[in-house]
Amino acid sequence: xxxPVINQSKHPLPEYQTAxxxxxxxxxxxPQPITLKPLQRALIPTGLFLEIPVGYExxxxxxxxxxxxxxxGIVNSPGTIDADYRGELQVLxxxxxxxEFVVQDGERVAQLIVARHETITWQPTETLSETQxxxxxxxxxxxx
Length: 144
What we know:
single chain; mainly beta; Deoxyuridine 5'-Triphosphate Nucleotidohydrolase, Chain A; four-stranded antiparallel beta sheet; globular; dUTPase-like_sf; metal-binding; dUTPase-like
């Protein structure tokens, strides 16, 4: 699959870091570093603009290394970029640690996953089919 992209950053396009990686690492495109204080969030620009095919989305997900080593996540994880969005791809980072974290220009801040999705229509009804689980919700399949 090919996705048209405009790269207004000074960094390479997002790329897979290993042969079988699902996500492409995307980099911050910053005029100066951004310091995230504990529990602070910020939109991190990437300088990328995408033309995603209809029927697909790009999911923006946290990088496991940043999450594990520094407590850096994405507020609305996974974020979704819709096929009709033409603005700059920005990553909404949050610092969940008790230490400040400095986001540097060119730092890999998130990973992008391209995923197919369906468009549905609702079918109103009065009943749903029965299942063994039924209405069991949170924790209902745990130890009893």
